[in-house]
Amino acid sequence: MASANMRPKKTAELLAQRIVADINRRGNTVGDRLPPERVMLEEYNVGRGTLRESLRFLELQGVIALKPGPGGGPVVQQPDAGNLATALTLLLQFGRAPFRTIAEARVGLEPMMARLAAVRMTDGHLAELRSSVDTMHDHLGDQSVFLEENKRFHDLIAHGSGNALFGHVVDALLGILDGSAIGIDYPEVRRTAVHRAHLRIYEAIASRDETASAEAMTAHIDEYVRYAERKYPEVLSAPIVWNNH
């Protein structure tokens, strides 16, 4: 029996699921064009309005791009964490959750990712991780480079964990909790401390030490939360809002 909270799926959403199933069945990859509208109308036996609503839904989810003009139409795309970040942001906003919610989630998630990365991260990912640490060190005077490398470092560990869900979740969480956008400043002394923490985490992962990797990440995220709580408590207490950037 369906839950009272479950809504019946619209015809357009059901059609969207069929279109995605057919993308997988055909083995379509990014850049492939889907059949033209007249073919899809006949194949799926639906009205033009329903088909266009389905395609628009898939476009919003990042599954396809709708190319205009002659020879255009739906083209397969690679969804990214942006859609997940938007959905999470709206859920948290309507739940009146503060930004502290994201920080607390990172405390729980990222040490596990570091532990897995110590076992599963490839040599190629390790080289990228080292590159991020070195780039941050070489540009400690530039906060924009610091923020970019800070995000890249955590993204690399998330994806290097070998768990696809962690990669997407961290992409989404970092997209929501962009310190510069919500008003957290990182003076150079703080950037230097973050670099040292990243170096310790890298060395632990590179040595394939699961426990040390998790402990180094725990210390790093705990330090970040303490810094934010001490210097910017009003930011962490502020409610999450969509498109706060």
Q: Can you put this structure into words, describing what you see?
A:
By secondary structure, the chain is mainly alpha-helical. The protein folds into two domains: 11-76, Winged helix-like DNA-binding domain superfamily/Winged helix DNA-binding domain (Arc Repressor Mutant, subunit A), CATH 1.10.10; 82-237, GntR ligand-binding domain-like (Four Helix Bundle (Hemerythrin (Met), subunit A), Up-down Bundle), CATH 1.20.120.530. The protein is 69% helix and 3% strand. It is built from twelve helices and two strands, in the order H-H-H-E-E-H-H-H-H-H-H-H-H-H. Strands 1-2 form a two-stranded antiparallel ribbon. The longest helix is centred in the last third of the chain and has 22 residues, at 210-231.
Give a quick set of tags describing it.
2 domains; 245 residues; 12 helices; elongated; Arc Repressor Mutant, subunit A; Four Helix Bundle (Hemerythrin (Met), subunit A); 3% strand; two-stranded antiparallel sheet; 2 strands; mainly alpha; Tscrpt_reg_HTH_GntR
